[in-house]
Amino acid sequence: MSTRLEDYVGAPQLLGEIVYEPDWYLLSVPAEALALVEPTGVVFKPAARPHISVMKGEAPSRNVAAWGTAFVGERVTVQVSPVVKDENGLHLWVDCHSARLCEMREHFGLTTLRREDGAYLVNFHLTVGRRKQAVDGRRRPQLRLSPQSHIDVGTGMQHL
Length: 160
Fold this sequence. Notes:
Radius of gyration: 15 Å
Mean pLDDT: 88
Structural class: mainly beta
Low-confidence stretches: none
Shape: globular
Strand content: 35-45%
Number of strands: 10
Order of helices and strands: EEEEEEHEEEE
Number of domains: 1
Distance between the termini: 14 Å
Helix content: under 10%
């Protein structure tokens, strides 16, 4: 199950920097960020370049002229859930939350789920690594928004 918004209260924070690569905005984070993650007991290969995908494989519908230049170099803080997720049977990740990353997505007209009070209901994720040996995954019930995003039925959170 994805992390609920309430679970981020008091969660550790992580500072990263926005980088743009062709068709991909990401938040690059220091390798030390993986120290925030609780041990899993699973044998895996750690991520070589820890990052959080902010926008990947999506086309902007607003502010198109700024795509690839806006926000580059900006430093952004995210809250990190230290609980490792591994439902797909191959990757290990932790959920992250950041209103600023959501604002960046909205700047370009990309889907960003909100509550009526304006709070963002979005989980980004930091890939911790890949299992050395894949196992059968456990799929959670999802409502697919796009190839890059879905809503976790159990929590109502959008997952990118």
